[in-house]
């Protein structure tokens, strides 16, 4: 029994470290703050809640029936990487460019919104591809394909913990900004935007190479 517990604990630790490194919730804070700037607190909390719940639902579905879904719809992981790469690049580009002077086409984050609005932001890019992107989906599917149902439950529990950590970081975003300062946060946001754009290009390139078997 002790040996079995140790094996499950070691597996849970491996899954936690692997998924945490891929999700990297700290890097998502600037994105969340950028997309929800000037929103009231209930709206921010609502979007944070929806984003982690949607991300968890995505990972749960793909962990349980990912291979079946890919087969039924004829989806390939390469196509998912290409799509995710494009989305990540666009968000990163917008973060680097900043709000600008365009008053005719304001972003959602530039306007006060009600708590029941902004669901599109929670879905894309927060839930997918940032929190539940191709890398996270692939990793969770790989871990879930382990020996028995207990491994699947461990993957679900570990990702739920990561979602909770992410939610708390989102909620504490303003406090984090106060500690490190607005100017520093702006620099971090632009740096993360650049990194996201590069990650997007890399995802797109990897997906294209797989699609065309280069």
Automatic annotation (TrEMBL):
Major site of localization recorded for this protein: membrane
Pfam families in UniProt: MarC
Transmembrane domains' residue ranges: 12-35, 47-66, 72-96, 117-137, 149-170, 191-212
Subcellular location: Cell membrane
Keyword Ribosomal protein: no
Keywords tagged on the record: Cell membrane, Membrane, Transmembrane, Transmembrane helix
Protein topology in the membrane: Multi-pass membrane protein
InterPro entries recorded: Multi_antbiot-R_MarC (IPR002771)
Cellular component aspect of the GO annotation: plasma membrane
Protein family membership: Belongs to the UPF0056 (MarC) family.
Name of this chain's protein: UPF0056 membrane protein
């Amino acid at each position: 029994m002790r040996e079995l517990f140790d094996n499950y604990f070691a597996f849970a630790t491996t899954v936690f470290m692997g998924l945490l490194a891929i999700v990297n919730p700290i890097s998502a804070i600037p994105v969340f703050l950028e997309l929800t700037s000037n929103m009231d607190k209930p709206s921010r909390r609502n979007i944070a809640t929806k984003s982690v719940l949607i991300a968890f639902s995505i990972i749960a579905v793909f962990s349980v029936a990912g291979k079946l879904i890919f087969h039924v719809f004829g989806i390939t992981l390469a196509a998912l990487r290409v799509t995710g790469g494009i989305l990540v690049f666009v968000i990163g580009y917008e973060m680097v460019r900043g709000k600008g002077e365009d008053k005719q086409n304001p972003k959602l984050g530039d306007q006060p919104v009600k708590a029941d609005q902004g669901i599109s932001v929670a879905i894309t890019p927060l839930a997918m591809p940032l929190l539940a992107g191709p890398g996270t989906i692939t990793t969770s599917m790989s871990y879930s394909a382990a020996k028995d149902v207990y491994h699947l439950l461990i993957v679900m529990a570990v990702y739920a913990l990561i979602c909770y950590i992410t939610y708390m970081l989102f909620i504490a975003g303003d406090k984090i900004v106060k500690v490190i300062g607005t100017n520093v946060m702006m620099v971090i946001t632009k740096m993360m935007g650049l990194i996201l754009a590069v990650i997007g290009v890399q995802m797109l390139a990897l997906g294209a190479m797989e699609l065309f078997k280069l």
